[in-house]
Specification:
The complex is a heterodimer. Chain A is mainly β. Chain A contains no helices and 11 strands. Chain A has one domain: Immunoglobulin-like. In chain B, strands 1-9-8-3-4 form a 5-stranded mixed β-sheet, with no helix packed on it. Chain B has a 4-stranded antiparallel β-sheet with strand order 2-7-6-5, with no helix packed on it. Chain B starts with 8 loop residues before the first strand and ends with a strand. Classes of the chains: A mainly beta, B mainly beta.
């Protein structure tokens, strides 16, 4: 049973370019959340997708957008890249349980984005 | 959403028990507490979660006092491979769960 998979593992982009990161959730999970983790800091919540809609959003600009597909996989798009966007981008999946709580987050190993 | 406070770092030796305490003074009635472990260049990994009193699994125990304003992750007999960053999260019910704040975690260093 595959866990959360992310692609690519590493990416180098130039300032001003656009990037798309991909995530496949753990089997049985329907909710995908994206996080940005700068070096030496904890993951920061970007947004969460459920039923192909953005349900929650953290304090990130509109340059960060996403999509969830019918098979629950997801993409994170970042436009007009800045040097400060260099970070590890983590995808996590979970499932909304019958008691109203989400199952614990299962994380992928992330995409290391470097903006030069 | 409840904010958490943890020590920045802790040191221990192999074979010792390690206790990491997290403060979450404004935890809400329906919030539960979750702990994650993260190694360099990997995503965080779920360790344990609980709502009150004590929860134990094969790798850790979680102690939550009656007022639930703090929680303590207990790692029995740590080894060098337990060197990692540990995060405490307060997770609300429903669709707000994803907004839980990780904070900067506690860096545990286990020495031989």
């Amino acid at each position: 049973d595959a866990g959360v998979t992310q692609s690519p593992t590493h990416l180098i982009k130039t300032r001003g370019q656009q990037v798309t990161l991909r995530c496949s959730p753990k089997s049985g999970h329907d909710t995908v959340s994206w996080y940005q983790q700068a070096l030496g800091q904890g993951p920061q919540f970007i947004f969460q997708y459920y039923e192909e809609e953005e349900r929650q959003r953290g304090n990130f600009p509109d340059r960060f957008s996403g999509h969830q597909f019918p098979n629950y996989s997801s993409e994170l798009n970042v436009n007009a890249l800045l040097l400060g966007d260099s970070a590890l981008y983590l995808c996590a999946s979970s499932a909304l349980q019958g008691n109203g709580y989400n199952s614990p987050l299962h994380f992928g190993n992330g995409t290391r984005l470097t903006v030069t | 959403l409840a904010k958490t406070t943890q020590p920045i770092s802790m040191d221990s030796y192999e074979g010792q028990e390690v206790n990491i305490t997290c403060s979450h003074n404004n935890i809400a009635t329906n919030d539960y507490i979750t702990w994650y472990q993260q190694f360099p260049s990997q995503g965080p990994r779920f360790i344990i979660q609980g709502y009150k009193t004590k929860v134990t699994n094969e790798v850790a125990s979680l102690f939550i006092p009656a007022d639930r304003k703090s929680s303590t992750l207990s790692l029995p007999r740590v080894s060098l491979s337990d060197t990692a960053v540990y995060y405490c999260l307060v997770v609300p019910k429903g669709t707000n769960a994803g907004k839980s704040t990780f904070g900067d975690g506690t860096t545990l260093t286990v020495k031989p």
